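> Could you send the Corrinoid adenosyltransferase prediction when you get a chance?

Sure thing. Input:
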Amino acid sequence: MKIYTRTGDGGKTSVIGARVEKDDARVEAYGTIDELNSFVGQAAAVIARLPDGEWSDRLEQLTLIQHELFDCGSDLSYASLDPDKMKVAPEMTERLERWIDELEASNPPLEKFILPGGSEPAALFHVCRTVCRRAERRVVSLAREQECPEEVRKYLNRLSDYFFSAARAANARLNVTDVEYERSASVFRRRT
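Output:
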């Protein structure tokens, strides 16, 4: 199989059901999700180098997230929505919420904004969070112009929250204190 086809040399690409410009909102949306998936892979590679067994829970989650990001891209690749072919389901977002709740239950209290970083895994999770937010913005832009599966937007919104919680949990696990933004007001309150 040849990797190159030359069909995109003129600036167009194929989505399911149409040929579009390579900077079409749909291509921008699933392309940004693909970029996010690469950063998730980088985070997983760094975590895989840490002591055996201590990070298996996070590695399993990241692998599942990578598959689900492919599902998001697949759902966005349809020029016209076909509800029977959509892969992203509410259960996926609900699972992210459970993971976030578990992470936050063991994270230190949070009152102020924190600086992205600390440990290497936490820094990578923050990169994933910010790229995820950009992907979500691209999906919102797409939805204003064209048909777009709503569940993908919900999933990405929750996924960015997961990465924030995972970053804090990584620092806590490695005994690295999050650095509060020094001019931040108290903006977070723990919910019960």
